[in-house]
Amino acid sequence: MPRLPAEWEPQAAVLLTWPHPATDWAAQIEAVEAVYLRIAAAVTARQRLLVVCNDAGHRAHVRGRLAAADIPLGAVALAIAASNDTWTRDHGPLIVLDSAARAQAVDFRFNGWGGKFPADLDDRITARLHAAGWLGDTALTASPLVLEGGAIDTDGAGNLLAVRRTLLDPARNPGWNQAAIEQELARTLGIRRCLWLEQGQLDGDDTDGHIDTLARLCAPGIICHATPHPAASKAERTALAGLRRELAALRRTDGRPYTLVPLPAPAPLTATDGSPLAASYANFLIINDAVLMPGYGDPADAVAAERLAACFPGRSVEIIDCRALIRQGGSLHCITMQLPAAGAWR
User: Looking at residue 11, what is its pLDDT?
Assistant: First the structure.
């Protein structure tokens, strides 16, 4: 049976789909590329980076930006695959390990979070990377299930944390019931137990409750979770209070409760039109020897970093300003996908 490793397990690389002018980033491409360069620098200091470029001209541009930022090009591979957008967590491969600890890539469908945004190119990125050899000799398994990587989190031992509505969504998976989805998760990812949540929603979130904005497994028995800012809307405060109650009711396989670590929230941030932006410290990325945490220029940044450092002893916490990212509805974890050490990545 396959096993989906936890994010804190050893990694070989991180995958990024780089922004380009044909994406929604066009109006703020410089600010967003600066965030990507910060992430690239943090990753390549510890492991490899695989970057998806839109075409040959874009690849030359990305190479130039990386070189100008003194990022070691020997630690970077630049692949080509056309993209609608850059939310790698949701359109990239999920890598599982087989019984011999060999990596296998699972290619789930991606339909733009239930048809909210164009996704035809993004849906083909994993297959194109595999066909071009960028995933090494990794086998590829295709699944008909629409599943975004940001919708699930795992402890590497067959337990999966998710908000039910993001998978049991008629706009994503019409005709699928919970039993069928759990069976497909078992087949493709080796999931033995789904910890389904009903509550939790951030104002401004387009994903219908992605777990990587709400609650994250930090160790087999530890879950950190978002809490509302005092100035948050009543709807967000109610949803996050409900999430906290549900998490407190969860039990580990041995019957013990999980240790819960509350993460603060920055003061509410809004877009230029006044609409809310979903800023969450739960959207961090774990890499070798470090945790990359989104920052929002708020005093709560330091508090969240301190709490995450306690959850990940032996790893430094590096804050990366992600205010440019959340203008399009996501943050640091949403644009990245870790590739475990078992793979023979190019």
Answer: 97
Cα dihedral 207/212/215/221 (nearest 10): 140
* 307-9-340-321 Cα dihedral, nearest 10 degrees: 10
103: β partners:
97
In the chain, count of helices (H) and strands (E)? 8, 18
Per-residue CA distances from 286 to 103, 141, 152 (Å): 19, 25, 15
Task: Tell me the three-class secondary structure of 104-133, residue by residue.
Answer: EEEEEECCHHHHCCCCCCHHHHHHHHHHCC
pLDDT value, residue 319: 98
pLDDT along the chain (346 residues), means of 10: 96 98 96 98 98 98 98 98 98 95 96 97 98 94 98 98 98 98 98 98 96 98 98 98 98 98 98 95 98 98 98 98 96 98 69
Where are the alpha helices (H) located in 55-193, listed in sequence order? 56-68, 88-91, 112-115, 125-131, 178-189
| C-alpha to C-alpha distances, 197 to 26, 109, 139, 160, 244, nearest whole angstrom | 36, 22, 32, 11, 10
Q: Which domains does the chain have, with CATH numbers?
A: 11-340 (3.75.10.10)
Question: Which residues pair with residue 295 across a beta bridge?
Answer: 321
Half-sphere exposure of 257 (CA within 13 A, CB side): 9
Q: Which two tokens stand for residue 121?
A: 């190119």
